[in-house]
Amino acid sequence: MSPAPERLFIGGEWVDPADGHYEVVDPATEEVVGLAPEASRAQVYEAAAAAKAAFPAWSRTRPEERAVILDRAADLVQRDFLAHAEIARRESGATASTARGMQVGVGIARFRRYARGALEPVEEAVAPQINEAGPMGRAGVFGALAVRQPVGVVTCITSYNNPWANPAGKIAPALAMGNTVVVKPAPQDPLSVHRMAAALAEAGVPPGVVNVVTGSGAEAGEAAVDSPDVDMVSFTGSTAVGQRIAEVCGRGMKRQLMELGGKGAALVLEDADLGSAVAGIGTTFSFYSGQICTAPTRVLVHRSRYDELIGALAAYANALTVGDPADRATVVGPVISAAHRDRVEAYVELGRKEGARVVTGGARPGHLDRGFYVAPTLLADCTPDMRVVREEIFGPVVVVVPFDDEEEGVALANDSDYGLIDYVWSGDVARAFRIARRLRAGGVGVNTVGRNMEAPFGGFRKSGVGRDVGSYALHAYSETQAIVWPG
């Protein structure tokens, strides 16, 4: 039985796409999971116009009302949890446990977090100022208030590596602040976002407040950025696409929140707990099959621990079960598409040509006759100038570079176009914190790859613009207005 075609969600209505449908493919089986709608440029503009029309009323709703709707949406997603997780697994290729816990589970948590966030104060008193008489008027004491106001219509362009957590992390804080949204999911796995929109509509989001448009190519996303009704663009994806979006936003003076690429440095010092470091770095092999911008893909290890680390990482990679994401024993699933598998494999071959040594992996898993699989791959004997060391591969590939002293290690970590999240492993926590302050990255993990979900998230340099997560996301989706009055 073929899957039912999906429709666009515009102005509170499910609308047939003007340009037909395209197939969404399961990366593990290469079977068709669903038929996603191809929005025309005109339909994307209609979605933005609907969001603009809905903005005045939604932005004036009481925060308590927005909180209730977001909480109710979380309840509705929870109600259909297993069905949502199954779709997420099939369209993204994530393992069953990841689809449940890190995709749908985190999506629910983010709706609940920003239900509370809608109630956070948006006004901050500014110290009074005494002004003497002059051209601006009589002498007096002037009070002031800094007020965070919604930006307006926000286009949310989401990444393919997490079809629940990433969209929820944009939509929920944007709505909590009183914005309206046009959501453009990644073309590879848009089906989950349609379920999210349905839950929000059932929860009571008024027509036009949330709109979803999809497309297999660039046209829908471009229209969602250049529409004159859009005030802000929130994008998660590659640096190259982010740069093109930023050019359009610059011409229209549109606000931006950009979470872009990464090439996270994992600095392993001579006194590091190697077991902890290997477990953290090994998440590149397993978590989303390395398709995550925060992964510690660029390992910089003190030369005295180099051989030991290479051996331990190789053993770790070889122990991971690669296979069907539906199987509970599977740790490493496929990458998102055949095209992306080819891209990752091309980087591994490039590493060979550059002189890197393939310690493990480097070929497709022989026991799988279908699906877009890449074996966990470890490249040793790398040098800082290699492209595999400098460029984001976005797959289960780890590169290792040795260093001789702390100064060289820090310099190598900072020698990058990126700066999203770096990591430091050391038995001396005070030393690790001191080094962390020297790293040019938006975040640093000390002896962990774990995250604090209230801490600001974003990157230096080409890894992005702005910060979100926790209350920082509420700030990102707001403008600050000053109100001044005479005392």
TrEMBL record:
It comes from the Bacteria. Pfam families: Aldedh. Residues 14-483 form the Aldehyde dehydrogenase domain. InterPro entries: Ald_DH/histidinol_DH, Ald_DH_C, Ald_DH_N, Aldehyde_DH_dom. Coiled coil: none annotated. Keywords: Oxidoreductase. This is Aldehyde dehydrogenase family protein.
